[in-house]
Design a protein that fits this description.
binds zinc ion; two-stranded antiparallel sheet; mainly beta; elongated; about 70 residues
């Protein structure tokens, strides 16, 4: 989703493009949306990849009120 055609659902203000960043040993990455329910790994840390699809998560921020809306593209 791009902010080009989107309006804030709270105040109808202009949205600006953005994303949620995650810092890891590999540097800064964008957070993805995953389908399905989160399931813990039997060994190790984190979650198993059990979702049917992963999509880039956009976080559009309203320049007027600061409301953030998420879109899984
Ligand atoms: Zn707004």
């Amino acid at each position: 989703m791009s902010a080009a055609n989107a309006q804030c659902t709270m105040c109808h203000g202009e949205l600006e493009d953005g994303y949620i960043a995650h810092w890891s040993n590999n540097g800064r990455t964008a957070i993805n949306w995953s389908g399905g329910s989160p399931k813990a790994r039997f060994f190790g840390k984190g979650l198993r990849s059990g979702g049917t699809q992963d999509r880039t998560l956009s976080a559009l921020r309203c320049v007027n009120c600061g409301h953030v809306e998420f879109f899984a593209n």
